[in-house]
């Protein structure tokens, strides 16, 4: 009996040794992944705001190179009363989006600045911008945080983002449109306010200008 | 009138596409170059057109000025308008060019450093994609420009700073750092808190800064509230690159009530 027990013990012991040698060795499996460095770029999207049915009722015109506001028309209040203020016929404005594509965050943040120049006939006084930092919520949705009160874009770099810490994890959106309410931009004096809207006293003609988005 | 208030009531979620930003890629956005008076430096920049359209670009120079709070905020100024401008020393070739879709272009810049210069000189080469055609109606063209900022520094530059005004404020130790050298100081400072046994209890980073010569900014190191009462050393390290980091040791104690007292600064 002792011999049988000893043989069984030996068999079990050898099996354990064999198992350990075959399966028990620790192994390292290197795992790696890489993401290429992305780059900063900007796009402009036209948006038509259909205000009567609520703030979220809008359509996009699509990607554009030029913000075209067209021939302006006098706007009315909700009762149809003419207000003596001119704006794009289709309530259009534009969104400039500035962010990273093509890969991960570059090693250095270049800084982002918006400039206005090349004004004709004072268009720069009548164009307003609102600056937002955008955050991804999911692949298709995002939230926005205002990072600057509405400002005239012909001022030096309003809403510019130069701090990497403030930009990190976001992209930047700038809404640009024709001003219809100068009070939003701090012009409460009626004479001064009138310089920042298109009214019956605004000289007729073609108004144009250029915005420059500086990345770096 | 409210109906027409520009942007006031808008909370829009515009449909989005990750590839929407894809256009021009620079291999990097800034470069530091060591120079010697009278030397000529020639370097290249690789631009990649990642879009499926040909891009037309124009290169030009601008001066830059880092301004308060010195966290990277800068003013973009006309070329040659600052005393430390590099615009007169630099030529870029080609100045105007196009890059076919999904292709690259190498641009060469040459710096002819005059004799007798010392310290840091700065500027940005912009590559601008011109604005779209401005229509014969009310319209705004949009130009997009990518900047490549050059930090030229002579080899005998003075890269140093002074720390003073160290004090304790709510849950943090703060102080002032003054650039006493003759080049822009760029740093991503770090800190850690060590107890008397040499165990590190807390570490972190301070706000990055871009501090021009002669300017001063404030730094603040947040001290973890979890640190128990006792005596500690706060090590602050300001690495400016190319020289030994500026290190400050701040000895402090924390009482049972949580009050912090600065004991010594080395």
How would you describe what is shown here?
Chain A is an alpha+beta fold. Chain A has one domain (39-215). Chain A has helices spanning 2-23, 123-126, 164-167, 190-194; strands at 39-49, 58-64, 66-68, 72-76, 82-88, 92-101, 112-117, 127-136, 142-152, 171-178, 198-199, 208-215. The longest helix of chain A has 22 residues, at 2-23. Chain A is elongated, with a radius of gyration of 31 Å. Chain B is mostly beta strands and 266 residues long. Chain B has 2 domains: 23-133 and 141-154, Immunoglobulins (Immunoglobulin-like), CATH 2.60.40.10; 161-265, Immunoglobulin-like (Sandwich), CATH 2.60.40. In chain B, the strands form 5 sheets. In chain B, strands 2, 4, 5, 7, 9 and 10 form a 6-stranded mixed sheet that branches. In chain B, strand 19 and strand 20 (260-265) form a beta hairpin. At the A-B interface, strand 1, strand 2, strand 3, strand 5 and strand 6 of A face strand 1, strand 5, strand 9 and strand 10 of B.
* Elements of chain A, N to C (H/E): HEEEEEEEHEEHEHEE
Can you tell me the CATH class of the largest domain in chain B?
Answer: Mainly Beta
What count of structural domains of chain B? Answer: 2
Q: Could you give the order of strands across the largest sheet of chain A? A: 2-1-6-10-8-9
What's the helix-strand series of chain B? EEEEEEEEEEEEEEEEEEEE
Strand content of the residues of chain B, in percent? over 45%
Helix % of chain A is: 10-25%
CATH-defined fold name of the largest domain in chain B: Immunoglobulin-like
**Which shape of chain B, going by the Cα principal axes?**
elongated
Mean pLDDT across every amino acid position of chain A: 79
CATH homology superfamily of the largest domain in chain B: Immunoglobulins
N-to-C span of chain B: 64 Å
Main sheet attributes: strand count, strand direction, barrel closure of chain A: 6 strands, antiparallel
Query: Are there runs of chain A of 5+ residues with pLDDT below 50, and where?
Result: 153-158
Major sheet summary line of chain B = 6 strands, mixed
Count of helix runs of chain B: 0
Helix content of chain B: under 10%
Tell me the Rg of chain A in angstroms. Answer: 31 Å
């Amino acid at each position: 009996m002792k011999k049988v027990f000893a043989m069984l013990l030996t068999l079990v012991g050898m099996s354990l040794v064999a198992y350990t040698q075959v399966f028990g060795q620790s192994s390292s499996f290197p795992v790696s992944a890489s993401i290429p460095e992305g780059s900063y770029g900007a796009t402009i999207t036209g948006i038509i705001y259909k205000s009567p049915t609520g703030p979220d009722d809008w359509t996009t015109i699509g990607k554009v190179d030029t913000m075209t506001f067209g021939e302006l028309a006098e706007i009315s209040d909700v009762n149809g009363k003419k207000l003596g203020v001119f704006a794009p016929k289709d309530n259009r404005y534009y969104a400039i989006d500035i962010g990273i594509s093509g890969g991960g965050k570059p090693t250095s943040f270049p800084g982002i600045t918006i400039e206005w120049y090349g004004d004709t006939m004072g268009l720069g006084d009548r164009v307003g911008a609102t600056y937002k930092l955008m955050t991804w919520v999911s692949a298709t949705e995002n939230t926005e945080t205002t990072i600057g009160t509405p400002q005239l874009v012909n001022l030096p770099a309003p809403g510019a983002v130069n701090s990497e810490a403030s930009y990190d994890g976001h992209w930047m959106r700038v809404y640009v449109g024709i001003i219809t309410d100068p009070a939003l931009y701090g012009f409460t004096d009626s004479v001064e306010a009138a310089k920042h809207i298109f009214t019956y006293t605004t000289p007729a003609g073609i108004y144009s200008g250029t915005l420059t988005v500086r990345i770096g | 009138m409210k109906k027409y208030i520009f942007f006031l009531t808008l909370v829009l979620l515009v449909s989005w596409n990750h590839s929407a930003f894809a256009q021009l890629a620079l291999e990097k956005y800034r470069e530091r170059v060591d120079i010697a008076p009278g030397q000529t430096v020639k370097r290249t920049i690789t631009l990649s057109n990642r879009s499926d359209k040909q891009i037309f670009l124009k290169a030009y120079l601008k001066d830059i000025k880092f301004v308060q709070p010195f966290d990277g905020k800068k003013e973009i100024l006309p070329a040659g308008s600052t005393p430390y401008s590099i615009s007169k020393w630099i030529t870029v070739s080609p100045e105007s060019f196009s890059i076919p879709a999904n292709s690259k272009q190498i641009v060469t810049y040459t710096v002819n450093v005059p004799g007798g210069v010392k310290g840091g000189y700065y500027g940005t080469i912009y590559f601008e994609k011109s604005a779209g055609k401005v229509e014969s109606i009310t319209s705004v063209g949009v130009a997009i420009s990518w900047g490549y900022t050059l930090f030229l520094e002579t080899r005998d530059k003075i890269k140093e700073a002074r720390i003073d005004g160290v004090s304790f404020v709510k849950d943090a130790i703060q102080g002032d750092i003054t650039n006493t050298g003759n080049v822009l100081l760029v740093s991503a400072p770090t800190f850690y808190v060590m107890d008397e046994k040499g165990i590190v209890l807390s570490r972190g980073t301070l706000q990055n800064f871009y501090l021009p010569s002669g300017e001063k900014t404030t730094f603040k190191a947040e001290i973890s509230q979890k640190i128990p009462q006792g005596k500690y050393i706060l090590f602050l390290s300001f690495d400016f690159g190319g020289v030994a980091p500026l290190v400050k040791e701040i000895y402090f104690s924390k009482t049972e009530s949580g009050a912090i007292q600065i004991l010594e600064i080395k």
